[in-house]
Amino acid sequence: GVILLPITIMGMFLGGFLIKKFKLHITEMAKFACITFIVAYLLNLLYFTCSCEVLQVAGLTAPYSGLKHLSFPKNNFMASCNADCGCKLDQWDPVCGDNGITYMTACFAGCKSSTGTGKNMVFHNCSCVEGQGNGLGNSSAVLGQCQRESCTKAFPYFLALQTACAFILALGGTPTYMIMFRSVSPDLKSFAVGIETLCGRILGGLPAPIYFGALIDETCLKWGTKNCGGSGSCRVYDTKAFRNVYLGLIAGLRAGCCLLYIVISVLIMKRFK
């Protein structure tokens, strides 16, 4: 928000400045808005190159290395190293082992003891963790999920791409509004603004959280559990499926918008040439 908000404001003001500076005709504004939207759409496709690996959680997205699994429905959260620990499947207090794998709780890592308190807590003698240079059961784990290096490295590129897309979209935002004002008769300008706002809310603003949320929920691998029962928030997502579903839906919707921009540009050029 700190980065994108000033960039968006700058793009809107620059779009208005270009209209005034070069005294663009409505046909030229239509071409300008169409080109900026298509360029932003093509840049948007580059989001698919920003990848982040799935969080490696033992028994969920990664196996218990070298250990015999016990059969449980859906996921193998239990293994021979923690079968006698009495771990609860509905708990989520992740720890990161020396082997770089995240465990749902210290119990699932088979840890026998701990030192420290709060965020500095370290668990020792973890029977399910096999660290480098340590035998099975002699390794430790720290509180919290393991870091994913590819996510950290990809984020600056993602942010730069998002900034470029936001700027180009904002650049064509002012011409788009000016097209609406200049293409309708003076007595219908207020009505046109109302219809545009209404359609935006009905087609995008109101239903978007519903269908986006429903698709995102389909990519969840592990749901949390509320204290009073029932499903809580998602703990682990399939990040690749999340990316493809989320960005794919956006790309599909914007492809339809690109088509509409092209159609309206052609109609305006025919009417006002």
TrEMBL record:
InterPro entries: Kazal_dom, Kazal_dom_sf, MFS_trans_sf, OATP
Pfam families named among the record's database cross-references: Kazal_2 (PF07648), OATP (PF03137)
Keyword Ion transport: yes
GO biological process, one term: sodium-independent organic anion transport
The UniProt record lists the keyword Transferase: no
Annotated Kazal-like domain residues: 75-130
Main location: membrane
Transmembrane segments: 6-22, 29-48, 155-179, 191-212, 245-269
GO terms for MF: bile acid transmembrane transporter activity; sodium-independent organic anion transmembrane transporter activity
GO-annotated cellular components: basolateral plasma membrane
Key words, A-Z: Cell membrane, Disulfide bond, Glycoprotein, Ion transport, Lipid transport, Membrane, Transmembrane, Transmembrane helix, Transport
Catalyzed chemical reaction(s): L-thyroxine sulfate(out) = L-thyroxine sulfate(in); L-thyroxine(out) = L-thyroxine(in); 3,3',5'-triiodo-L-thyronine(out) = 3,3',5'-triiodo-L-thyronine(in)
Subcellular location: Cell membrane
Membrane-protein topology: Multi-pass membrane protein
PANTHER family in the cross-refs: ORGANIC ANION TRANSPORTER, SOLUTE CARRIER ORGANIC ANION TRANSPORTER FAMILY MEMBER
The family this protein is said to belong to: Belongs to the organo anion transporter (TC 2.A.60) family.
Protein's name in the database: Solute carrier organic anion transporter family member 1C1
Organism: Pampusana beccarii
Name of the gene this protein is made from: Slco1b1
